[in-house]
Amino acid sequence: MKKIKLDFISSSVLSNQEPEKRIDFILKKVKDGSILVIDGVLKPEEEMNLIKETMRRVDDGFPGIEVCSLKKPSNFLDSLVDKFMDQKENLQKFFGGLTGNTSITTNLRTGITFIGPAKLIKKIKKNPDSFSILAEV
Fold it and tell me: Which three-class secondary structure string do you get for the chain?
């Protein structure tokens, strides 16, 4: 009997890490065959960097990943808070670069993310407020 390993990860685990360490954490778990369910959503540029790093690491034993995220629908206030947090992070990066402190952590956005090995995930069907996954072992 073949098995599937699911790891449910709290956003607080990833929010306490620098973006590069988040990507390494995620890819290590997925490369080991785990399917991750995270109670948060990466920022678009972080997800893009995750895909780029995945492509760098693709080989015969690791064909890549499948990613699907649902971000909580935002109202005006939530959008304003997101914009404020982005500006705060930009300022931290700027001043961190001036002072030599480049280790900056950023919070995940509210939502849910699914990340799994491409060799197991056969189909993802996404709707505006849900998604379904077909996996084969």
Answer: CCCCEEEEECHHHHHCCCHHHHHHHHHHHHHCCEEEEECCECCHHHHHHHHHHHHHHCECCECCEEEEEEECCCCHHHHHHHHHHHHHHHHHHHHHHHHCCCCCCCCCECEEEEEEECCCEEEEEEECCEEEEEECC
70 alpha-carbon distance from chain centroid: 11
pTM over 0.85: no
| CA 60/CA 2 separation, integer angstroms | 21
CB 116 within 8 A of CB 65: yes
Asked if residue 95 is part of any domain, the answer here is no
d(C-alpha 119, C-alpha 35), whole Å = 11
Residue 115 makes CB contacts below 8 A (sequence gap 6+) with 26, 30, 35, 36, 38, 65, 66, 67
Indicate the pLDDT class of residue 28, thresholds 50, 70 and 90: very high
Q: What is the domain count for the chain? A: 1
Query: What is the residue range of 117's domain?
Result: 5-74+106-135
